[in-house]
Amino acid sequence: MKYSILIISILLSAAKAESIVFVADDFKAEVVYEKERMTSKECLNISDCFTFPNSLKFYSNQNPLFSLCYQSKGTPRFGHINKVKITGCINSNNKVVDLNSLMKAYKMVNPK
Questions:
Q1: Which of 43, 64, 84, 103 could in theory staple to 49 by disulfide, Cβ–Cβ 3.0 to 4.6 A?
Q2: Residues 20-75 pLDDT 10s
Q3: Buried b (16+ CB within 10 A) or exposed e, 89-109
Q4: CB–CB of 95/49 below 8 Å?
Q5: What's the DSSP call for residue 83?
Q6: What percent of the chain has pLDDT over 70?
Q7: β-pairing, 37-40 with 74-81?
Q8: CA distances, 64 to each of 16, 30, 42, 56, 109 (Å)
Q9: Residues near 82 by Cβ (< 8 Å), separated by ≥ 6?
Q10: What span, in angstroms and rounded, lies between the C-alpha atoms of 43 and 20?
Q11: What is the H or E stretch that residue 6 is in?
Q12: Between 94 and 36, the higher pLDDT residue
């Protein structure tokens, strides 16, 4: 019994160690992706990688999530992990986060 638990935990840790790559045209980054949340490995705390605006401005001709990305000094890009389509926000240091997670992090930093 102890050996089967050990083998299962080794297999699970090996599966977690597998490299997951977000691809958007010519951009590629290793990411952590689980439960519809995607971030660069160095950005598990999103506010460490993105500078949020004090007051978010929305524009009628722009998606609110894109607005947040631009105002956080990032660039929104359409990409994918395997065949799952994801829209990410890429900062100047090539760190990436999915737009929904970016908005959640913004709301935690700037609650209203």
A1: 43
A2: 999 999 999 999 998 889 999 999 999 999 999 989 998 889 999 999 999 999 99
A3: bbbeeebbbbbebbbebbeee
A4: yes
A5: T
A6: 83
A7: unpaired
A8: 33, 26, 25, 9, 17
A9: none
A10: 15
A11: helix 2-16
A12: 94
